From TrEMBL:
Residues carrying the site annotation Transition state stabilizer: R61
Gene3D superfamilies for this protein: 1.10.520.10, Peroxidase, domain 2
Protein name: peroxidase
PANTHER family tied to this protein: OS06G0521900 PROTEIN, PEROXIDASE 72-RELATED
Region (Disordered): 83-106
Signal peptide (residue range): 1-20
Length: 264
């Protein structure tokens, strides 16, 4: 369990370092910088993650939302002002980046494979990145039945295990609709997500789409389902690659003098 949470922390730290370092003189940045300015920060992060297992999917979701919508601008660090709400004020277990841009820029839970591939390609990410990053759903849960209703109440011929569909319909009918992406090991970062896709037990339509049409993406699902090390390796690479994403050229950008506020 500790290993699993450590892996999430390391992947995020690698991505953050890569994001900060791209396009700048190498002598100005160091992956060990915080050892001097904030000794023990990595140990502190690991300790928090070990105590709050629900934080792993929340932090992964924050990083994905921050980078995928408008590039990695770290808007989640901004303090609240009279004219701007702060994302830091959200419930820690349910954090996500709010606003129209997030709603428009993120892939839909009912997106087809073609739409997913196009959305990732537009951001410089390929099919391997899409498949590996989707594996983040090996932890966490959907917070509403609305996210998977169409899948579990769809046609009988849909690519879904009947017993799994019945189980998730119960989630919709008997409670809040919360449901884990990975029923067996929802707090362990492993490759169970891909094994579930092989068994037609992907929770979201966009999950199961990775193993519906055959081809290279389905091949990757099969690889990750049987080779956890391959998944971990590609996930870390994809996280670093996504961490290098920059805001669109049309957007004004600045190097903030304080992480907590915009310069003007």
């Amino acid at each position: 369990m500790v290993f699993s949470m450590d892996f999430v922390v390391v992947a995020l730290l690698l991505a953050a370092v890569a994001s900060a370092a791209e396009g700048r003189p190498p002598e100005q940045l160091s992956p060990n910088y915080y050892e001097k300015t904030c000794p023990g920060v990595q140990d502190a992060v690991r300790a928090v993650m070990a105590r709050r297992l629900d934080m792993a999917p929340a932090v992964l979701r924050l990083f994905f939302h921050d980078c995928f919508v408008n590039g990695c601008d770290a808007s989640v660090l901004l303090d609240r002002t009279d004219s701007m709400e702060s994302e830091k004020d959200a419930d820690p277990a349910n954090k996500s980046l709010a606003g129209d841009a997030a709603e428009e820029g993120l892939p839909s839970p009912v997106a087809g494979l073609g739409d997913l591939l196009r959305a990732f390609e537009e951001r410089g990410l390929d099919a391997r990145d899409l498949t590996a990053l989707s594996g983040a759903h090996t932890v966490g849960k959907a917070h509403s039945c609305d996210n998977y209703r169409d899948r579990v109440y769809g046609d009988e011929g849909a690519n879904i295990d009947p017993s799994f569909a019945a189980l998730r319909r119960q989630s919709c009918e008997q409670g809040s609709g919360e449901a884990p992406f990975d029923e067996e090991t929802p707090t362990v970062f492993d490759n169970r997500y891909f094994q579930d896709l092989l068994a037609r037990r992907g929770l979201l339509t966009s999950d199961q789409e990775l193993y519906t049409h055959g081809g290279p993406v389905s091949d990757l699902v099969e690889l990750y389902a049987t080779n956890r090390k391959a998944f971990f390796k590609d996930f870390a690479k994809a996280m670093v690659k996504m961490g290098n994403m920059r805001p669109p050229k049309r957007m004004p950008v600045e190097v903030r003098l304080s992480c907590r506020r915009v310069n003007n």
